[in-house]
Specification:
heterodimer; A: alpha/beta; FAD/NAD(P)-binding domain; 8-stranded mixed β-sheet; 4-stranded parallel β-sheet; 24 strands; 24% strand; B: mainly alpha; 3 helices; 65% helix; 0% strand; flat; binds flavin-adenine dinucleotide
């Protein structure tokens, strides 16, 4: 009998749990530890944030699905790893703290044969004073944040209707943020709502970002062919900004958010104040900050985790200048460098470096995006990890690991720019590979045949269908496993 | 609560603003096509095929 413990029930953890349960015999246990009782399809939080969907449309309770599937579920937060066990018990274990209403705060230990750390990002609002819903800005990162933000947006629209001009600032709340795509989506969804409400003329919409230029999206931008011309995601994005009259401030690190005022520094070292009426600023991400101890009780956290709290896996973490970054630096098995029975798919693994060009202001402030790891890579890496664990349980330790490097993986991204069955739009993009490979594709690092972009209603339909498809899959309804990650 | 400063012109990046102003502006025909249901149904099929290609390549 083997026990697989999965930390986190997000896109990666939930995908790994469902596949493992499908593949492994009932003599093996699949255990999920996650602090929230509900699963959330995070991409649709954008539509909750503009009041077009409710929280219950983007979430569902996990316990009934896990009960039906035979997966053991602990509503709890993992806090500490004991990968070599303890002096009293040599079995590897993880300490968890309950977040269930009836047992909140109680701690317990779970032993494991295999551990999947799929804890994703911790929303690090604390990195910027005043950032976040507990401070002076808004967020759409969770369904509850998004619901709160939608209420604030309604209030702004009411003021606009009363003839009061409003400035809405949407973007990234720190120089090292990632997920610019989500900020971009929310910007254009808000702009769309303002137009639908007939109040666009009184509103000023500003996109505030740590990207060096528009269209970077943390992946260093894209180059693709359109109507016989090579064009860039920059030109394409700027065109949308022009069409929709959205202003942009780029190369910005938000230093602090005071009530109604954003203070930021730019790459040239200049500092500015931006008064606002409504500000949705994404936080930078950190790892879950799990602690780890060896059998003798020595702290081995820094051996297992990078300083940003993400788990170190089979990547090449040697510090290198940008010119020497290689696609080969990126991990492919997501096995912990220290313990081969621990894995980190999705956002939980420490990336070897960024994808966008790294940049610092003269004051030494880092102002460049961290590498994004979107839903599709999170699902694909989780499935690869689940396949490796299945093989090692059924065939023995020597079974080779399954590989899924982001340098050999394409991504399909659909960025919503407004919702509605006939009025919606979205930018549908594909890229291959996610991490540029300059050896295989010397011109731009990506295959021009796999890299594309297109704006229109069709993109919106795809985004809406993906919402229903992935909720269906996550609920493990009949034939769920036929839906690709 | 800190008093709200006077609303000023926000310090936009001049080069980005110029670049946006010089970027291609879609014609009304392009904008219409982006919302044209029959045309978008064709694009829907084309984009799905393209995405499937990329997805299958990633699942190999
Ligand atoms: C607003 C927004 C919009 C987005 N839109 C898109 C999009 O359109 N397309 C796209 O591809 N991607 C999008 N993304 C990115 C996408 O959501 C992530 O790539 C994906 O969720 C990553 O999956 P994950 O499993 O690694 O992390 P998550 O999905 O965040 O899951 C992490 C899980 O771990 C749990 N957890 C955290 N700490 C602990 C702990 N200590 N112990 C146990 N459990 C823990 C969390 O509660 C959560 O259940 C968006 C992100 C945001 C914020």
């Amino acid at each position: 009998m083997a026990r697989v413990v999965i930390l986190g029930a997000g896109i990666a953890g939930h995908t790994a749990a469902l596949h493992l349960r499908r593949w492994l015999g009932r003599e093996h246990e699949v255990v999920v530890v996650s602090p929230n009782s509900r699963w959330n399809w995070i991409p649709s939080n954008i539509w909750v944030g503009v009041g077009r969907m409710t929280r219950s449309q983007v979430t569902f309770p996990l316990a009934p699905v896990y009960r039906r599937k035979g997966i053991i579920f602990h509503q709890a937060l993992a806090t500490t790893l004991f990968p070599e066990g303890t002096a009293d018990d040599p079995a590897p274990a993880v300490e968890i703290r309950s977040t269930a209403p009836d047992t909140a705060g109680e701690t317990s230990r779970l032993t494991y044969d295999y551990l999947v750390n799929a804890t994703g990002p911790r929303l690090n609002f604390a990195a910027t004073p005043g950032l976040g819903p507990d401070g002076n800005s808004l967020s759409v990162c969770t369904d509850s944040h998004a619901e709160h933000t939608a209420r604030e947006l309604r209030a702004v629209i009411a003021k606009l209707r009363a003839g009061e001009p409003q400035r809405l600032v949407i973007g990234t709340g720190h120089g090292t943020c990632t997920c610019e795509g989500a900020a971009f989506e929310y910007t254009f969804n808000v702009e769309h709502e303002l137009r639908q409400a007939g109040v666009r003329d009184k509103a000023e919409v500003i996109y505030l970002s740590n990207e060096y230029e528009l269209g970077d999206f943390g992946v260093g931008g894209l180059t693709f062919t359109e109507r016989g011309f090579t064009t860039s995601s920059r030109t394409w994005t700027e065109s949308l900004f022009r069409e929709r009259d959205v202003h942009a401030i780029v190369r910005a690190h938000v230093q602090k958010v005071e009530p109604g005022v954003i203070h930021y520094e730019q790459l040239d070292g200049s500092e500015h104040e931006l008064p606002f009426d409504f500000a949705m600023l994404l936080p930078p991400f950190r790892g879950a900050d799990l602690a780890a101890y060896d059998r003798d009780g020595n702290d081995i956290t820094s051996r297992m985790f990078a300083p940003n709290g993400f788990l170190k896996v089979d990547a090449d973490y040697t510090p290198k200048p940008y010119e020497e970054w290689s696609a080969k630096d990126w991990p492919s098995t997501y096995e912990s460098a220290a313990y081969p029975n621990i894995f980190a798919p999705g956002i939980a693994f420490a990336p070897p470096h960024a994808i966008s060009v790294p940049r610092k202001s003269p004051n030494g402030t880092v102002i460049s995006p961290a590498p994004p790891r979107t839903g599709m890579p999170a699902g694909i890496t989780a499935r690869a990890v689940a396949s490796t664990i299945r093989d090692r349980i059924t065939q023995g330790q020597q079974a080779p690991a399954h590989r899924a490097s982001m340098a050999h993986m394409g991504a399909a991204c659909v960025a919503s720019a407004g919702t509605g069955f006939t009025q919606g739009t979205a930018a549908a993009m594909t890229m291959y590979p996610v991490v540029p490979d300059r050896e295989a594709f010397p011109a731009t690092g990506r295959d021009p045949r796999g890299t594309s972009g297109e704006i229109g209603l069709a993109g919106h339909w795809i985004k809406a269908i993906l919402h229903y498809l992935f909720l269906y899959k996550a609920k493990a309804r009949p034939l769920w496993f036929l839906i690709p990650e | 609560m800190t008093p709200k400063p006077e609303r000023t012109e926000p310090p936009m990046n001049k080069d980005t603003a110029e670049s946006i102003a010089a970027s291609p502006l879609p014609t009304s025909r392009t904008l219409r096509l982006r919302r044209n249901v029959p045309f978008q149904l064709l694009r829907f099929a084309a984009i799905n095929l393209r995405m499937l290609g990329v997805i299958l390549r990633g699942h190999k």
